[in-house]
Amino acid sequence: MTLKNSRNLKMVFISINTLLLIFSIGALLYLLCRALGGVCYGFLLLISLFIIFISNTTMQSKLLLTLIIFLIPFGGFAILIWAYLSHNKNCKSSIKVPLWVDYRAFLQKESTFYFDNGKSFFDDLIKEISCAKESVYIFSYIISIGKASQILMCKLFELIDRGMSLNIAVDYYGSGDILKDEGFLALKKRGANIIVKNKPFAFLLLKDNLRTHAKVFIVDKKICYLSSANIDDKSLYEDKNCAVKLVGQNYLNAFYPLWDKPLMAVKDGLTNLPLLAPNKANVEEIFINFINKSKKSVKIVTPYLSVSQNLFTEIKRCVLRGVKVTIIIPALNKSKLDKLSCHFGKKLNRYGVEVFLYDKQFLHSKFLILDDVFAIFGSANFDMRSGRYATESLLLSADNGLIAPLLKDFEHIKSQCAPIQNYKVKESRVVESLFNLFAPLI
After folding, report:
1. Which of 77, 102, 152, 322 is deepest in the core (most CB within 10 A)?
2. Comparing 52 with 123, which gets the higher pLDDT?
3. In contact, 370 and 102? CB cutoff 8 Å
4. pLDDT tens track for 416-427
5. pLDDT surpassing 80 at residue 189
6. Which pLDDT does position 204 carry in this prediction?
7. In what order do the strands lie in the sheet with 111-115?
8. Confidence at residue 98, expressed as pLDDT on a 0 to 100 scale
């Protein structure tokens, strides 16, 4: 090999390794290995190794260069761990998740109202905002431009004109478009306190997965809505969603971190315990803890289903000790998320879990009912992103004012479902392995 050819190879090698480093950070730090990033990373890795071994260098140099290439990703993992720990530290609130409390010991002190569709929830929210006497706090993962946001904006302008306090927080990943809307920008000019979570370039800290996925609306501190629906026309008027309205306590205390406010304590002994997760435990740990307490039944409604090995094992234990586990997910269509849910649904079904698919409309409701006496309700999906990474708004409840309509809604949804056994999906072992591998990233 001539000197000129050797230099050319070195330049190619340096160029490819520069790209390799970029894709390493992209795939391992930003978690883009689920798509093109992972493919390009592997492809460039193979080319780089090929160039190393055909180059005119000693075997010792080749081995050293190979070692360097394989050590590059560990830097990305170190940053990943640091970002995750930093995110959890910043998200913690003063509310202790009562993992040690028997859910049957909750006391009734509040009024609870349940909405089985997005429209009725939104109409009631607008009515309460119109009557607000002090303040309105809004956090919605998605606020999109459309009919619903226009209705909301009109009421919020009226609110500001009446001298009320308005605080809005959104997640940039979910609501990037509304932040450029003239009406939304005018709210800020008129005195609204607007906070953007996970701003641009936050991907450097993995915010693609560490999203603030909550949906919380608080009027005069003592009226609180927790919803599965976003402020979005499709979510409110087309999809199957639900919401809970709580009246009686100072619910703002539980969700202050969403609006970057000082943390406050929440009274003990409530029928309904609102909280943000992750806190002392993440969503997955809360699910595992309460599923472990179940004696008779576990009923789950979720738009997205992907369970970790720990949660999968806990569900299997449930079935083995005679607990009836039923899960309802959206019917299979072209969405990769529906295919992923179907994959995990079939996997759980093999171990005795009843899995049903709902195809009347897109199912976006999210709740879990234990033994027909306790519920976990809120923004969290029954998947790994919500379970481990995202910040979610939850309600732990033993209030019959919520449990009874939740059970009714569950049975109504189930009556329009078909068993997952009716859906035949050809899935090779390779595809199954890929689903298991990339589930935490989707």
Report:
1. 152
2. 123
3. no
4. 999 998 877 665
5. yes
6. 45
7. 111-115, 243-247, 223-227, 215-219, 135-140, 165-171, 193-197
8. 41
CA distance 355 to 347: 10
Q: Is the pLDDT of residue 42 over 60?
A: yes
Model confidence over 371-414: pLDDT tens digits? Answer: 999 999 999 999 888 888 888 999 988 888 899 999 999 999 99
Burial per residue of 150-170, b for 16 or more beta-carbon CB atoms within 10 angstroms, e otherwise = eebbebbbebbeeebebbbbb
CA atoms of 20 and 49, how far apart (whole Å): 11
Give the model confidence (pLDDT) of 226-275 as tens digits.
999 999 999 999 999 999 999 987 888 888 888 876 545 445 444 567 77
- Enter the CATH code of domain 97-107+270-442: 3.30.870.10
Paired strand residues for 143: 231
Q: Give the long-range contacts of residues 156-165, CB within 8 A, separation 24 or more.
A: 156/129, 156/187, 156/192, 157/186, 157/187, 157/190, 158/130, 159/129, 159/132, 160/187, 160/190, 160/191, 160/192, 164/132, 164/133, 164/134, 164/135, 164/136, 165/134, 165/135, 165/136, 165/193
Instruction: Classify 110-268 by CATH class.
Output: alpha beta
Helix axis angle, 59-91 relative to 3-24, nearest 10°? 20
Q: Is the pLDDT of residue 110 over 80?
A: no
In the prediction, which pLDDT does 199 show?
A: 67
What the block records as the tokens of 191 is: 């005195």
**Parallel, antiparallel, or unpaired: how do β-strands 272-277 and 243-247 relate?**
unpaired
CB contact set of 413 (below 8 Å; sequence gap of 6+): 240, 301, 328, 358, 363, 365
Give the pLDDT of residue 401: 86
Between CA 381 and CA 390 the distance in angstroms is 10
Instruction: Write phi, then psi, for 281 (nearest 5 degrees).
Output: -145, 150
Residue of 244, 296, 318, 281 lying closest to 392 (CA atoms)? 281
Tell me how crowded residue 51 is: count the other CB atoms within 10 A of its CB.
16
User: Going by DSSP bridges, is the β-strand pair 297-301/272-277 parallel, antiparallel, or unpaired?
Assistant: unpaired
Rounded CA separation 154/3 (Å): 72
Mean pLDDT of the chain: 78
Radius of gyration of the chain (CA): 25
